[in-house]
Amino acid sequence: MDYMIREMREDEYPLLKEFLYEAVYVAKGAAPPDRSITDSPELQVYIRDFGSSRHDSALVAEMNGDIIGAVWVRIMDDYGHIDDEMPSLAISVLRPFRKSGIGTALLNAMIERKKADGYSGLSLSVQKENYAVDMYRKAGFHVALENEDEYIMTIRL
């Protein structure tokens, strides 16, 4: 696959709503939730007013002029929140392009970007059954906390 990773432009921030929806984990055999789920307060924290904080940062994977994946970070009180110094990460790749290395490339690019920016670490929340857990582990994330369904994972930069 021929794609490039680049900084997300401000005029593209509205696309984060679609990528947030795509990031919602759907268990095998389960029906996907209604798209309105992204309007819930617990998910709006990932995208509302994105770009208004100096901690907001997003990268995209682009192929043939189309954005096929996104990774973004911000300091927010979300499911993966650790503290007010560590940005939380969200990542999503459109279904037809999953399991092709694009998510790993996006993740690694953001890790390097935030390391260069001087952050001490990143955090995320992931369903234990999500196949992406292995991708996060391979990238260097470790389980910091867990509950019945989710891991909160962190990486030190």
From TrEMBL:
Alphabetic keyword roster: Acyltransferase, Transferase
GO cellular component, one term: NatA complex
Name listed for the protein in its UniProt record: GNAT family N-acetyltransferase
Entry GO MF terms: acyltransferase activity, transferring groups other than amino-acyl groups
Pfam short name (any one): Acetyltransf_1
Domain N-acetyltransferase: 3-157
BP GO annotations: mitotic sister chromatid cohesion
InterPro entries recorded: Acyl_CoA_acyltransferase, GNAT_dom, N-term/lysine_N-AcTrnsfr
Native source organism of the sequence: Mediterraneibacter catenae
